[in-house]
Amino acid sequence: MSSDNAAVKVESISKCFEMYEKPVHRLFQTLLAGRKQFFKEFWALKNVSFEIERGECCGIIGQNGAGKSTLLQIITGTLSPTTGSVQARGRVAALLELGSGFNPEFTGRENIYMNGTVLGLSRAEITAKYQDIVDFADIGEFIDQPVKTYSSGMVVRLAFAINAFVDADILIVDEALAVGDAAFQQKCMRHLREFMKTHTVLFVSHNIGAVKSLCNKAIYLKNGQVRMIGSAKEVADLYHKDIYAKRQGVEAVSEPSASETGPDETEETDLWRDMRQDFINRTNLRNDLEIFRFDEQAKCFGPRQIEVVSAKFTDAAGRPLSWIVGGEVVTLQVKCVVHKDVYSPIVGFYVNDKLGQKLFGDNTYLTYEDKPLEVGAGGHFQAEFTFTMPILPRGNYSVTLGIAEGTQEEHIQHQWIYEAILFESHASSIAVGLAGIPMRNMKLIKL
Questions:
Q1: How far is residue 348's CA from residue 358's CA, in Å, rounded to a whole number?
Q2: 404 and 291: one domain?
Q3: Do 235 and 357 sit in the same domain of this protein?
Q4: 340 and 242 co-located in one domain
Q5: HSE on the CB side for 151, CA within 13 Å?
Q6: Is residue 102 a part of any domain in this protein?
Q7: How many CA atoms does the CB half-sphere of 320 hold within 13 Å?
Q8: Could you tell me if 9 and 82 lie in one domain?
Q9: Stretch (H or E) spanning 162
Q10: Can you give the pLDDT at residue 253?
Q11: Per the domain annotation, does 19 fall within a domain?
Q12: How buried is 114 (Cβ within 10 angstroms: 0-12 exposed, 13-18 middle, 19+ buried)?
């Protein structure tokens, strides 16, 4: 359905490239066009359609060769589609191959004016933005030296700065945030987040965590076709599932089913204790985390030859917890059943925020690398992770569980459970960041 608020509208885009085995075949094709074909067709994109509304940040993900770069080049106008059309409303700036448009003989200053002109700015507009560009690039006196004397890091810093200050309506970013040092990457992220408040962003990255963090919508390309369009988290989860399926050569989709062996009968009769009762409620800033029970029907994938039958947070006495206080020690207990003989099982977990960002996690591999566990078919084993729960901002969180067999580098993913356990932070004293570390002591000392 077409929207009048669309900043980018892609309709039935397809792109075919001609693949020649030998250079001379290009000549033959020109001379004998229509009578014989000397090339093979490679369709990089097939009937791709979507819309991105003004103010949206849309991620585009997919494996190498999925057609992401081809699509971006068509949207920016540097490549023509074989069929279909693209409408982009407003000025488009693209952070693609940073620095590829520089003249190495020109100084940084001269390249700023040259690139700014190419991007549609007048000389007066470039002059007005010049100092902002120089300050952002932070390359000092090298701004008046030829670009051929720059390091690769200096080149991308200047290129990003130029593209970041052209007052574009639509910004296209293709792995540009993977360049530069950590401090510069953080600066780029801050600028991008500020830009996203009022403009449209098309963000392409293999960093799925960054896509889930930055984008409210995502498009998954696979073999040149749209595999899925939806929320960033839903699309990223499907991409993640497909990656594991490809690595293991199995169909990763797995519908939830009742385990052959269910949870212990005693678990339901255990007293689920409210840990808050151990504390005097003197403040409304205590980090109260409400824990919901393990969801046996949670979305998952994998062949499930090792399967989780229960998962819960417990206290030091092993009692299941319905509430946790951030900053206190807890244990995540994961019980599994095996349906075949297994050697070296690995159990891991992530705690994710509502955007799907991984806040922390771990797995058992290194602990048992020298003494792998062996379990026969029909047997059970249990993993336990004891840690201090960080102080978390208000909001919703989830625990993702992964059960594998093998090593860190080479393993079979038997079951991956999204949102196995949900919990909610109702109150928090955290001031900044995604999570807080409990302080041992804080002082103000007048000297």
A1: 13
A2: yes
A3: no
A4: no
A5: 8
A6: no
A7: 18
A8: yes
A9: helix 152-164
A10: 45
A11: yes
A12: middle
What's the total number of domains in the chain?
A: 2
Bridge-partner residues for 330, per DSSP?
Answer: 387
pLDDT digits (tens, 9 = 90+) for 195-207: 888 889 898 887 7
**Residues 233 and 260 both lie in one domain:** no
Task: Kindly report the length of the chain.
Answer: 447
On the CB side of 383, how many CA atoms lie within 13 Å of its CA? Answer: 28
354 assigned to some structural domain: yes
- For the CA atoms of 296, 331, 289, 300, the dihedral, rounded to the nearest 10 degrees, stands at -30
The two structure tokens encoding residue 13: 């885009």
CA atoms within 13 A on the CB side of 302: 22
Tell me, yes or no, whether 214 and 293 share the same domain: no
The continuous run of DSSP H or E covering 85 comes out as strand 83-88
- Ranges of H-type helices in 169-313: 182-196, 208-214, 232-248
Are 215 and 281 part of one and the same domain?
A: no
Residue at a domain's end among 228, 249, 270: 249
Provide the whole-model pTM: 0.69
- Note whether residue 393 is domain-resident: yes
- Per the CB < 8 A criterion, the answer to whether 68 and 173 are in contact is no
In order along its 447 residues, the chain shows pLDDT tens digits of: 456 788 899 999 999 988 887 887 777 777 776 677 777 888 999 999 999 998 888 999 998 889 998 998 899 888 899 999 999 888 887 776 655 678 889 999 999 999 888 877 889 999 999 999 998 888 888 999 999 998 877 888 888 888 778 778 888 887 655 555 666 776 777 787 788 888 898 988 877 877 887 888 999 999 999 999 998 888 988 888 888 777 665 544 444 443 443 444 444 445 565 555 454 335 667 788 999 999 988 888 899 999 999 999 999 899 999 999 888 899 999 999 999 999 999 999 999 988 788 899 999 999 988 899 999 999 999 999 999 999 899 889 999 999 999 988 888 899 999 899 999 998 887 767 888 877 766 677 878
Phi, psi of 341 (to 5 degrees): -65, 130
Q: Indicate the DSSP class of residue 296.
A: T
Structural domain for 409, as ranges: 253-425
Q: Are residues 238 and 284 in the same domain?
A: no
Domain limit, last residue, from 187, 218, 249: 249
Cα–Cα distance measured from residue 238 to residue 390, given in angstroms and rounded to the nearest whole number: 29
